[in-house]
Amino acid sequence: MERKGVIAAGNMLVDHVHQIVQWPERGWLAEITHSERSTGGAPLNVLLTLAKMHVGLPLQAVGLVGEDSDGDYVLAMLEQYHVNRQHVQRTTSAPTSMSQVMTDPSGQRTFFHSPGANRLLDLSAFDGLNGSLKIFHLGYLLLLDSLDKADDEFGTRSARLLAQMREQGFETSLDLVSRKGDPRYQPLVLPCLPHLDYLVINELEAGEFSGLPMRTADDGPHIDNIALAAAKLLAAGVKQRVVIHCPEGAWGEAPGEAGSWVPSRMLSQAEIIGSVGAGDAFCAGFLYGCHESWPLQKSILLAHACARASLLCANAIDGAKTLDALLQEC
Predict the structure, then answer these.
(1) Model pTM?
(2) Which positions of the chain have pLDDT values less than 50?
């Protein structure tokens, strides 16, 4: 039987998104003009974006939430969008993870994050997954404390998990968290790469991994260095595709194929409401292209369309569109 569908696992949280007039100097007040609650984290953002594409894929979530109102909200959202939540467990040992997200008028966001229950998600949560699904996506490395622990055989527990998923026939995908100056990028990422089919990260994360500057002196994308970082990641073991994206475009590369830069269609600053979840929306579109065995460039163009739609709303989900609507914008 042909495998079909996507499992997304890892960080589940609730974003409390606030639009602010300006970022204040230390000790001063800034006015909040609008607030809303939305789901956040790689699994929820990817799955709900795919659900809103109306492509009919089976979708399953794996994660851990608290016994609290934010946990109730996460489960209700999964129910609303018909995502299998059988492997979303609850705990009384920690609250549901959450972020307070401050979005300034330019669309830039600043996160204040409480890790909560995500710190406790461990290997036992992944027993008995539906083997008829095709892609297993994990995010975000560096924010999953139990899975980020060392493993004598695989280097890290997340590497062990990804190896197990590949052994079970899943195509595997990974996303990282953007964390400047975190010395754990190479120790935690490198062991995972030989067990990955797809790696989709932004230029900030690629820069932390590679040590190369990803922006030029005039703040444009340093495409040559982005290409070098992608080549390094492939050489370190990624099996099928590496994509490094930034607002101006994305570099995609696969083993045995020349990499290429796929520019995005930029929005004006006035059009951008918020960038929360835009990277996850990009990832959702890209994974759909991979699921359907689309060429690399076509998959990236769909990913750009998903990210662009996400930028038009303050939270990670409201901007998501149907596949038909997205294809008209590719």
Answers:
(1) 0.91
(2) none
